[in-house]
Structures
1.
Amino acid sequence: MNAFRAELLKATTTRLLLWFGLGLLAFLVLVLSIHIGSHDPGSLREPSTQRSTFAFAGIASIVAVLIGSLLVTAEYAHGTINQSFLAVPVRGRLLAAKLAAGIVVVFVLAALADLATLVLSELWYRGRGASLHLGSYTLAPFLGAVGASILAGGIGVGLGALIRRQTGTIVVILLWLLIGEGVISAAGDSARFAPGHVLGAVVAAHRISNAGDMLAVWPAVVVGLVYVAIFCGLGFLAVAGSDVPSRGD
Amino acid sequence: MIEVEHLTKRYRRATAVDDLSFSVPRGRITGFLGPNGAGKTTTLRVLLGLVLPTNGRATVAGHRYRELHAPLRTVGAVLEASNYHPARTGRNHLRVLASAAGIASARVDHVLAQVELSDAANRRLGGYSLGMRQRLSVAAALLGEPELLVLDEPANGLDPEGIRWLRNFLRSFAEGGGTVFVSSHVLAEVSQLADEAVIIHRGKLVAQQTVSELTLQAAGATRVRSPRAEELLARLREAGIEGDATESGVLAVHAPPERIGDLAAEAGIPLHELVADTGSLEEAFLELTAEPQA
């Protein structure tokens, strides 16, 4: 519990979350403006359009994977991992604390992304002379965004522990999201099991698989948890079996 | 307090520490000496559980670091002064460590005052000088009120005032019953501070002795002047002490002045001069770590 509290304190005593939060907000303003602005008022009233609008809150999961990785790699980048392991020398315990803290942090971030998406959508809808109809069908992506962010945060912690280099980890994540997922889409049905597709399926929150390239929500959650377990397991093994880097002799 | 037993650490083809064994007694200041690259930092990092040994073990109070029930309450470590998040304040840096170790947050302000950093506590670490960061490292080490301080080159980059502060601080810590194990290649510092010295070279133990023994070992002969020098030299040789006549009435004797003085007194031989040619830890260190001539 002490290690968990310390990890939360670490996350909240730098500007990391502030900048990511502001960046996410700016991105949501941009994409929601483009999305809502490009629909005519009649289309905006469609529940399916509102559902797809709210699904933009799922962008939080991209930020979540970055935050999860930075909770580990920033410590290696700044050398503070040395003091962290001095205070909590059982490495698995420290990484478990990072995972737990990461889940809490990205949960809050995703909830704020949901709120921001709702408020921005309401403002845009009013401006376009339409109104939002809130119900379980249209609001489901908000829950999906929270779930996908938690899974993404867990994957990020595991990936950060596995690679441990801050720039390298961010590059791997961005390359995968921008190129890897696209390439794997060409593989046909199996692309449904790629990490990005799985997170997208959790955000979309369809109860049954409605498209060939997307799982239904609960199978997607299960596959997402498998990814978290694999990345965290490999990351923990990598950290436990390696020396903590030093700049000394 | 510290036991290092047959410790070996290899990095691919390079051997940083090679079958190293030594112990550090409780309640004393022990210097850990060696040239750059001798394996001091690696040894300390193995001791602190940050580096995995290839063979052997290093323990504190009989336990590996990771097995200690409350590590920060047993060992306070001062490693590199660059291990900080620049956006975090000094106080928050310590709050994080205190929280992780289950130490009351009230200790944070106490140790900040102890290292004279209270005024800078709410400044971001990116704006700290090297000396301030080094003091913060000491504050972090003191958070758990440990009985052992392990310091890796703590004087690196410190100005003379900072070095004096550190020396006084470590002395007062040891006077309070604490144990200090401090690595350094600044021999003058260690000779003023340490009771004992562990000297390593190329990962191997070269010597472990008290600083006074080491300096004595490095000392030249004791200069003795007497009107009955030849008679004194014979008496000294009978007692198994080596010596030579260097000039008329002057001897160079390989023994401490006290021993020579006692023997001369017993024999009733007058002495006009009895001067120890004091060596230094630096001389001992250079002698012990000298590369063999090709």
Note: Chain B has two domains: 2-210, 220-277.
2.
Amino acid sequence: MTPISPADTAWMLVATAMVLVMTPALGFFYGGMVRAKNTLNTMMMSYIALGFLGIGWVVIGYSLAFSTGSSWVGGVDYAFFNNVGLDPKGTIPHVLFAAYQATFAIITAALISGAIVERMRFGPYLTFITLWSIVVYAPIAHWVWGGGWLGKLGALDFAGGTVVHINAAAAALVVAVVLGARKDYARQAIIPQNVPFTLLGAGLLWFGWFGFNGGSALAANASAALAFANTMFAPMATLVVWSLLDMTRTRKTTAIGAATAIVVGLVAITPAAGFVSPVSGIAIGGIAAVPSYFGILWRARTRLDDSLDVVAAHGLGGIVGALLTGVLAQKVWNGTADGALFGNVAQLGIQFAAVAATIVYSAVGTFVILKLVALVAPLRASTKEEGIGMDVTQHGEEAYSRGDGAILVHADRG
Amino acid sequence: MKLVVAIVRPERLNEILEALYRADVRGLTLSRVRGHGGETEAVETYRGMTVKVELHDKVRLEIGVSDNFVDPTVRAILSAGATGEVGDGKVFVLPVEKVYRIRTGEEDRSAVTPITTEESGV
């Protein structure tokens, strides 16, 4: 057993906190893009995930993902963090590894919320994402990272291109279809209420992503440095290509476009971060801009109300990243495997299998969970509630209350 | 000429604007206001503080129209603005003494809806 490394532990402590911050950052990223009357509801969909999914992870999620079990799902050895102690897991304390992985489970489920903003009732949403993280996320994490079949097959997913992003996007597509479009969708202009929130969120996501990708090396080593550099340069390339596409199409560079480009670049480099050279990473970031950019334009003309384009950003970005990882991986950089461009064509096939399996399992699992939740409670708010706004109807609060006509009452005295 | 002042629900605004457009009513002014028309208060909670919000967000429309257009304008607002519940708002029709269009200096009937007056013979 390798001893605990103080250097690795120090880096992973910081990385864990950085990834945790990504979920509030996502709340800001999404919250800026909805209408003012739905701000708090949209942000709460991310913030509340910190609580429910984090605790779900301790109760059973971590065990299903990372304890020894079959090729398909882990066992119950680590349920309630049993046997999760201070002993080393790799070179860091086991409890730190489990905490680090919790932050991934939380943000993955929160990502889905972008597809269903401004219309899903909060209780059913909570029930859905909590079940989803246990039934869908944990097994897929096990397949790739927990000793499951995709890992054994040799699928390369450094920090969660398939496990996190393609998985969340497949679920987002299903939940957007099951819920249906917002009542105003394609009938009225639905304008972002606070673009600076979205830019703030994108900036904080980028910062946190250094922990997400850099931390996925699980050590303060060369692999972490490579992932860190790729996390920096790939989104820069996406930003450049996206801006040029924007300029060519409308002669203007948009701020929401810039925020989106940053996220798309980060998504695309996630599976590749520790496997490709920085120049390849820049290629991945630049290429990933194209399908996501045109995917967003196309989606907006359809009846598919994936409101904040989770599928175009995380699905298309994730697929581009996962497949290009199979093309551009280089053994001289990662010590593990070469990609198709460097003579190992089979790697691309393995990557494709990982993408396809994730999409199928995630979509089916999401559909079943949604139908089960719908048996107990309606998923959608009423048309009237949607009109008034989800902040007042779901939370009894307003994001931008002016306080006119607000009369103090003492709840305990009725 | 009349000035039609309508206080309506913000969530019905787009439907009302559509109905006005279909009724050929073009010029209007909109402001965001808060008001109270007898509907139940919304209860909101901020930490230990519970408040009843008695004033609700409303939209105020002001539309200057020629006499023939009063009825279509009012009917468009009534049909598109009604939900049947308390809080749908009010429409006021006020007499107007004089109207000037600033761009051209036109007066009265030629300065309000409909925009083309003489030709259409309204």
Note: The interface with chain A takes residues 9, 11-12, 14, 34, 36, 41-46, 49-56, 83 of chain B (CB under 8 Å).
